[in-house]
Structure formats: C-alpha cells, structure tokens
What we know:
By secondary structure, this protein is of the alpha/beta class. The chain has helices at about 10-25, 35-40, 45-55, 70-80, 95-100, 140-145, 160-170, 195-210; strands spanning about 30-35, 65, 85-90, 110-120, 125-130, 130-135, 150-155, 175, 190-195. The strands form two sheets. It has a seven-stranded mixed β-sheet with strand order 5-6-4-3-7-8-9. A two-stranded antiparallel sheet has the order 1-2. The longest helix is centred in the first third of the chain and has 19 residues, at about 10-25. The chain is elongated. Belongs to the transcriptional regulatory Rex family. Homodimer.
Amino acid sequence: MSKKRKIPNATLNRLPLYFKYFKQSESNGVDRVSSREISEALDIDSATIRRDFSYFGELGRKGYGYNVRALVKFFSEQVQGTGLKHVILVGTGNLGSALLNYKFTNIHDKMSIIAAFDNKDSIIGNVINEVEVLHTDKLEEVIKDHHAEVAILTVPGEAGVKIAERLEAAGIKGILNFTPEKLEVSKKVTVHNIDLGVEMQALLFYMKHK
C-alpha cells in the first residue's frame, strides 16, 4: 500500500476557494469547467490548480475538464465533512456581533453557530441573528451538551489565551482565532489565526508592489 501523500497547507487553504467556485458554477447551471476557467475566476495559476487537485486523485479528464456537480460533492466532503458542525462564538463585541450576522450558510451549509458567549451584563441575554448570548460561565456546559467542536474567538487581548485553554479542556477541536495572541493549546487543537492588523499590512504591501 502506497504511503498517503501529505497535502501542503497552501493547498488546504485553497480548498474553500475551489469549493465556493464550483458551488457558484453549479448554481449558474454550468456542467463542466476547465482549469483555465478556474484560473481566470480565482486568479490562481492553472498549473497550481492541477497540482492541488492531483493530491486527491483523478478529479478531471484531459480535454474534458472538471464535472461541476461531482466536484461540488467532492469538495463539500473535503471542506465541510459529512456531518453538521456545531460552532460557538466567544466574545460578542463589534467584531463578534458582525460575525454572528454574517450568513455562514452561504459558504458552509453544514455549520451551525449554536451559542455566543460574553461576560458583560449589558450583552448577556441578547439574541443576535437568532443566536443567544450566554455568560462565559456556561461555556463548558454548552460545549458538552451540544458536542460543539469549533469555536470562533473574538475576545480582546490576553483573555483569549485563558479562554483557549478552557475550550480545549472542554473538547473543542478547532479554533478560528481573531485575537492577536498566540494561543497555548496542544497539537490536538487546530488553530487558524486571523490577525486583521497583519492582513491590512499585507494588503498595503501587495498594493505597493503589484
């Protein structure tokens, strides 16, 4: 039996883009697309696209292209998995509230935000986009009762480090981290960091050197 190929992080980061593209193509009634068409739509080199897809076997045929419906199904399983993911959000300030109002189902119809948490009395009890804001004291209870696996972390500063430790202890497997802090969790937890300051600097850099 051949050894399973390790998929590069760069490829994994592009999978949601491919999934969104194929899903949109399906909605537009497109039956098949070529790597050139994908390249033009996503601004990703055709050779990179073919290399990314090669990690998953034969997804298309030369001269035929890629079957949109088949690829929607495939990437749906790769990106979303086959089961419903219960997600919690910790920190419901301006950023957290904005994320709660974002329609995640547009890109991930197997993800459900079941609860949000905060420690401010003025926010606790509010309902944002049908999601109730609970006190952080109930964090572990909700994670256990709903078998939540994913957390979105938008608390300020160093509070994120302590919250992340509680999340791991309660059974969270993945954290989307919007705080600038490095989270002290084990390798059992997958952390995806989104530092808005760094992203803005990167944008300005690319604008200058484009």
